[in-house]
Amino acid sequence: MTQRISKYQRFKMMNPVIQFFKFIYLSIKIMLIVAGGHGGTRKVN
Amino acid sequence: MAKIVILGAGISGHVAATHLRRKLSKEHEVVVVSPNSNYQWIPSNIWVGIGRMKSEKILFPLAPLYKKKNIEFKQSKAISFFPEGDKNENKPYVLSEYVLGDNKGQQEKITYDYLINATGPKLNFEATEGLIPGENKAYSVCTYTHADHAWEGLKALIEEMKAGKKAKILIGTGHAKSTCQGAAFEYILNVEQELCRHNVRDMAEVTWIANEHKLGDFGMDGMLLSYGGMTMKSSEMVEMIFEDRDIKWIIGAGVNKIEDGLAHYETLEGDYKTESYDFAMLIPAFSGHGFKAYDKNENDITEKLFKGFMLVDADYTPKPYEEWSVKDWPETYQNPTYKNIFAPGIAFAPPHAISKPRKSRNGTDISPAPPRTGMPSGITAKLVADNIIDTIKNGKESLHHKGSMGNMGAACIASAGYGLTKGSGVSITTFPIVPDYEKYPKTQGRQLGKTFGEIGLAGHWLKLALHYAFIYKAKMRPFWWLIPE
Ligand SMILES: Cc1cc2nc3c(=O)[nH]c(=O)nc-3n(C[C@H](O)[C@H](O)[C@H](O)COP(=O)(O)OP(=O)(O)OC[C@H]3O[C@@H](n4cnc5c(N)ncnc54)[C@H](O)[C@@H]3O)c2cc1C
What's the mean per-residue pLDDT of chain B? Predict the structure, then answer.
């Protein structure tokens, strides 16, 4: 087993307070990307 | 008055039915035809398969909801398509067969003005010899019943490990052309965490097996994503997670035969190998349902409607990978021959794969088929419904709403372990889903800021929040339509 995620990184990943703000941030970011719209790729003459 | 028939009540069929009903007045008929009496929120099957969520939590019966909302529900399955009617029936129809109750086995011609084929994939277990859910120690999590069986199998093995047995667990794709690597990825991480929770992690060797040529391909040609202020390849991200959790991997592997505790596979290098296991979860190949279509004189016209899945407004001209373009992908999901037939979600035939096709040295195709996840399934279903609504209201064809997977973002919140404080999730978004190498030539076809990855507890909360939000939406509770697809 190779430890690829350091103890500090893991602390940040699992800390409920930090992750609460991350949750809000991710929810908004995902909403913006996904609800940001969609459309075609071909131009219609 | 128009009659809209929707085949399938999965993510796309249900989204289409609910939007049509909300926006069309009562004089128009909305009919749903589906063999399963329940709606199921498939993404949460992962948690059913590790025993952390009961299957009842991810499903609800459709008939009472549809009755209340004035949507007609027929618990039957479509068999064949008659888009011109026949000698006795002038209207186009679908021949269907009831699957339950007094009518079981009875066939019915269901006529329509507009048809939405949202039948998703056939889980083609038969394409891999011996891959039968619940047999040969191999399981699936593709439906809630499969996921229940998978948990029974895993639970029994955990008990044996507690008693001192060393075990091998194999999770990934069960066919050289499987798709849905994301679901298998979620499952392997959840299983690994559960082994830790039950204090048997050191008794198990956990291995990923997949038809991807690189880790993190996910059938999407991999991704270059923003991660923690850096730019990282999805292959590096998955490698980091697997190494950190001591998960081994076999890639470029086309599983072709399953025997009791043995998975036989061919590699891209052309070698034939076998991996033994005590528990496996392997995603089967997905295929079309093998529907037939006939014209008015009952001549076979299947090739006008289907190429495995249903033909839509994609460019199906065969071309090499280097010439693939986002413009090949459909925008309106309308059948080119019969303009009143549409196929959103997984039911439409993709123009080609997204990942580069690869063959083994023996000439066997070993590479992922293109995935179509829940979000594009919902978005495409809604735009099909909106185009039909506009067409009915305007009295002439309107295809104003468009949504190509080459101009659409998607979020994939992959669970990496369950638990309010111990859970984890890998949140990945991509824009666009199908890489646009013309627009974003330097970033592997995708826009960097909008294509990002995050790992942590927040990902688990997000996936749980989506579970409750989408079930709320599917149940058509107050203001359900405000929740986006
Ligand atoms: C284990 C698993 C986990 C997943 N996790 C995620 C995730 O986290 N995020 C995500 O975005 N996507 C996820 N997906 C993908 C997502 O579930 C699919 O994209 C989505 O279900 C596709 O919707 P659909 O309506 O096209 O097909 P389906 O959901 O498969 O629905 C098809 C419907 O058609 C019906 N049907 C079948 N045959 C007939 C017939 N002959 N006549 C009439 N009706 C018929 C079926 O009963 C069903 O109701 C996951 C998939 C799996 C298998």
Answer: 96
Contacts of B163 by beta carbon, 8 Å cutoff, 6+ apart: none
- The reply to whether omega before B432 is within 30° of 0 (cis) is yes
Residue B191 DSSP SS3: helix
What distances in angstroms separate CA B350 from CA B16, B158, B289, B391, one per listed residue?
A: 20, 40, 15, 25
pLDDT band at B102; cut points 50, 70, 90: confident
**Got the DSSP string for A12-45?**
HHH-HHHHHHHHHHHHHHHHHHHTT----SSPP-
* C-beta separation of B232 from B453 below 8 A: yes
Report the residue of chain B nearest A22, measured CA to CA.
B458
Complex ipTM: 0.93
Q: What are the residues facing B422 on neighbouring strands?
A: none
Does residue A45 carry a pLDDT above 80? no
A-chain CB neighbours of B240 within 8 Å are 4-5
Instruction: Quick: pLDDT tens for B457-475.
Output: 999 999 999 999 999 999 9
**From the list A15, A20, A26, which residue is nearest B454 (CB)?**
A26
Q: Say how far residue B131 (Cα) sits from the centre of its chain.
A: 19
* Structure-token pair, residue A23: 């949750």
Per-residue pLDDT at B448 = 87
Nearest-atom number in ligand 1 for the CA of B96 is: 42
pLDDT digits (tens, 9 = 90+) for B264-298: 999 999 999 999 999 999 999 999 999 999 999 99
What was the pLDDT predicted at B349? 98
Please say whether the beta carbons of B306 and B349 come within 8 A.
yes
Q: How confident is the model at residue A44 (pLDDT cuts 50, 70, 90)?
A: low
> Alpha helix (H) ranges present in B124-180?
144-162
With 0-12 / 13-18 / 19 or more C-beta atoms within 10 angstroms meaning exposed / middle / buried, residue B400 is exposed
The β-bridge relationship of strands B285-287 and B122-124 is: antiparallel
SS3 state at B182 = helix
CATH architecture of structural domain B3-123+287-402: 3-Layer(bba) Sandwich (3.50)
Within 445-484 of B, beta carbons closer than 8 Å to A belong to: 450, 452, 454-459, 461-462, 465, 484
Distance between alpha carbon B101 and the CA centroid of its chain, in Å? Answer: 29
Record the tokens describing residue B142, joined without a space.
């593709």
* Mean pLDDT for the stretch of residues B202-213: 98
Mark B51-89 as b/e (b = at least 16 C-beta within 10 Å).
Answer: bbbebeebbbebeebbeeeebebbbbbbebbbbbbbeee
Sign of CA dihedral B337, B339, B341, B345: positive
Q: What is the pTM of this model?
A: 0.96
